[in-house]
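Hi U.,

Before I forget, here's the chain from the pilot set. I'm dumping it here mostly so it's searchable later in email.
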Amino acid sequence: AGLLGSRLAEYYRKNYPDTKIVGIDNLSGGFRENVHKDTIFYETDLVSENIQGIFSAHQPDYVYHFAAYAAEGLSPFIRTYNYNNNVVATAKIVNECIRANVKRLVFTSSMAVYGHGWEGKRPFEEIDPPAPIDPYGIAKFACEMDIKAAGEQHGLDWTIIRPHNVYGRNQNIWDKYRNVLGIWMYQNLNGEKLSIFGDGEQTRAFSCIDDSLEPFWNAATSPKASKEIVNLGGIHNHSIKEAAEILIDVMGSGEVVHYEQRHEVKHCVPTYEKSVDVLGFNHTTDLKEGLTDMW
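Structure:
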């Protein structure tokens, strides 16, 4: 019911209409109206509920695990919630994938696993040792390690995707702790200034969801993607200040307000070459075009 799951379901229905899609979401960050009408949908929670029956009933070939609470800045203050909703939920998915003997698990990790970069190295490359700086990044790295261990011990095939600041139609704009582009849209719609923490010179590689859908398909089905970790997303980097200026132009109004700098990675600049080679990624949607569609 969130951005990634709902848009990927649309892509499957359009390009692979014979595919049966089963979705699980607790609607904590997604919306029922995002769920494609042809999706077999379960409104349930990965942490508190038993999902073994869903896997047994449908015997999935491929599993996409997009569920997470991706709030890096908030994660130091919600440690238990963070680890339950990211690590514990992932462990339950991994268990069911092993039981169901799925062909492959595709897991969306995060750029947060890189932290500031190994000894300050940029751009972040998939072979760099992770060095997360907050509980959210730590949780995502723990999930990656657990999935790898399941591959070694139980023969689970997997692909780990590290997306770059994905945005687009169907994104939640009501959560003030994640998805900065959506946060700004919400602020503008409510007559508030667009908040920037620090000088706005932080750099990010924003990625329109439309460009990642075919790579997600390839992540599940391509032999080249088996047991690979891949950065996926935007080729062009933008400063936070520049992104705000582009969005203000798209919205036709808006003003920026600066707040005290917070604890975060200043420059999150990943490589993209592997996503092109392994997943067939093609960056076709620039930030202004993607934001216009989302707005």
